[in-house]
Amino acid sequence: MTPFKLTDELLEDIRQLIADEKNGELQSMMQEFHYADIAEIADELNVEEATYLIKLLNSEKTSDILAEMHEDIREAVLNNLTAKEIASELEELDTDDAADIINELPKEIVQEVISEIEDREHAKHIVDLLRYDEDTAGGLMAKELVKVNENWNVLTCVKEMRAQAENVTRVHSIYVVDDEGRLKGRLSLKDLLTTSTKTHIKDIYISKVDYVNVNEKGEEVAKIMSKYDLEAIPVVDEIGRLVGRITIDDIVDVIREEADKDYQMAAGISREVEADDSILELTRARLPWLLIGMFGGIGAASIIDSFQPIMIGFPILLIFVPLIQATAGNVGVQSSAIMVQGLANDTVKGEILKRLLKEFSIGLINGGAIASIVLLISHFIFGTPYMVSITIAIAVILVIIIAALIGTFIPVFLDKRGIDPAIATGPFITTSNDIFGILIYFLTAKLILGI
Amino acid sequence: MTPFKLTDELLEDIRQLIADEKNGELQSMMQEFHYADIAEIADELNVEEATYLIKLLNSEKTSDILAEMHEDIREAVLNNLTAKEIASELEELDTDDAADIINELPKEIVQEVISEIEDREHAKHIVDLLRYDEDTAGGLMAKELVKVNENWNVLTCVKEMRAQAENVTRVHSIYVVDDEGRLKGRLSLKDLLTTSTKTHIKDIYISKVDYVNVNEKGEEVAKIMSKYDLEAIPVVDEIGRLVGRITIDDIVDVIREEADKDYQMAAGISREVEADDSILELTRARLPWLLIGMFGGIGAASIIDSFQPIMIGFPILLIFVPLIQATAGNVGVQSSAIMVQGLANDTVKGEILKRLLKEFSIGLINGGAIASIVLLISHFIFGTPYMVSITIAIAVILVIIIAALIGTFIPVFLDKRGIDPAIATGPFITTSNDIFGILIYFLTAKLILGI
Hints:
Chain A has 22 helices and six strands. By secondary structure, chain A is mainly α. In chain A, β2 (174-177) and β3 form a beta hairpin. The first copy, chain A, is elongated. Chains A and B meet through α14, α15, α16, α19 and α20 of A and α14, α15, α16, α19 and α20 of B.
């Protein structure tokens, strides 16, 4: 594939065509592009231009474009469409994408849009999906699936399947249900085609089928699907009735979003933002952790202030404060990141005590290495008196060990309490380790130098 | 699905059954488990136990178990198998998984293992795959696919497809090639079944098909497949010949690994490690960044040391060093994380100057807020003289703005130079911002307080 690349020239051309209302040229140009590429183009246009483009193309393609567009731009474009126009877009979409779009619409027009959807079955399915939280299996699933009754024979089954398959783009599996609609198993296409038409489905279906509950968390569904290499998974309600299916492409999005969220949390960004968001949004996402970090800094200032005699007696100790602080922060971030990742991937097993002991050993090795170098540099380069250099070195070892233990313990503790441990990396751990590190440093100095 | 949960009791039971050599019970127990679950069990056993379990089960299941197992444990278990036994496992695997396992085998037995594979076609395919870098499309692809010649008619095509499909677990697409094996397009199963058997394939195939080059980076393949919602993509060589296909489940693994790697890089972990790795491995992954952080700390110490007159004249300035350092670090990590993510998701467009201006504005707002609070606290709580408090507040604003600019600029700079910008977060940015932050702080003090 010559990959599509949205250049500034291409964008400029499209803008010009829109300005000149050259509809024919625009249409034939867009014909060549994949809907995902047109969505990328629309994201870069202003709202009027994007709306013009969307109105120009036909519903079958525009619905897919809308589904792929950036949420904010889509919202603005939909604002320029009538309820009837929105409904005709939703008509073309799979129920899951349609429900996602409805969830973004202003409350007052939702009712009208839904009532304008001509295919009432489709509308009913969309409404069904609206009641699930977007982070659950229910919020991820679509209604489009092929299901057959265990009491049918092969002939009825094939006939019914043909009708159902019309609404389903990709048939991943044929699900078998009982009279109450409860999921019983799945059917292999091969068995269906090689068995006599009078055979009952209940005699040929495979009862082993992976499924998830409608309230299962999206993250958990992603884990199950990627562990078992599934391309689709059926979703059942509380009493085991088949209510939808989730496909792997939606899960890919969940995995990406989850990873982005964890990454941002580790970087001290408290709300989901993108580089292109507004200054206000970016500020709101960043200020909270800066404030927490600031109070950490004020805390550190109070600690240093309370060791006045040391400051006066050994001012040289103060120039190594940044070293202590950086080390405490780095060690804390490292150990917490390893724990957070281990917890997310379910690879952390065994007792916490053993794990802390391991961190203690790693801290001892790293601490020993760093402390030796610091000892030499502070004594020979900065001319720090011998005892003071030893004090600094011992403090470095202690700080590294304790920072590692804190970095390991906090994520496990949060996880046990049901809190997402990902919050425990980045600024959280650096701030608390700043304070502990400096406290340990001055306490060590007080003990050894006896002030 | 009642999700599989590996409890300590279950593990103990299995260990006991292995110790007592109760093969029958073990076999019937494992019968009930999915191979991915058995792989999870094997990962927790010691090498002798895992080998015992693998040897007990039949090749069809064990090959899948081996493919899902943790690399280190698999390597150890394979060490206990003969070349012939390994070959019979590879026989059952898809070519991509088989090639991955061969890549881990000691060089001296690779030749022997390959020669023991009975299906010579399969062996040849595996050898083909060995020459690709594991991070490229070639390293991700498998040879199992269904392809038909454009010059065949529908009848020949259906016959040939049946034979090919036997070796392919899931048929995602039927690819069309010319006499030289070059990818021409794809075929819809529906068209194939509804057309007269004498029709030539060249008259019914769809020429629009997404594909990737064999040397394309895995990360890029992941982007393309998730952008276009593809479940499989064909891979072509330099002259356009169809050489393999990549399925979405392999891409899910690529996305997860990529996210894990970025997360670890941001946390200052320089080699891929897991919580369960050995103390030595974890130390080696962590020490490099701690050393760099240490040298940063030493640099900061030199800077403070070089402002001796200020230290003596205004010792109170020293207690706010941790605040300056923490703020510089946090701001740098935030801005770099947003840029790194934006670059990875291709959402960063437009000029760098505009983006720096935006960061400047955000820095001004955040800086203003933090500086005002610091001003009040330092003056009223710590009793810092008015001019010194103002000095600290101005330094805070400057530090926040400059840290934000550095955090934004470095990832863009690295990206332009072809270096993975993910390296620019975490310790890298905190270390450089520590130094810049402290330098700015004391320079500001020197300018305003005139020492």
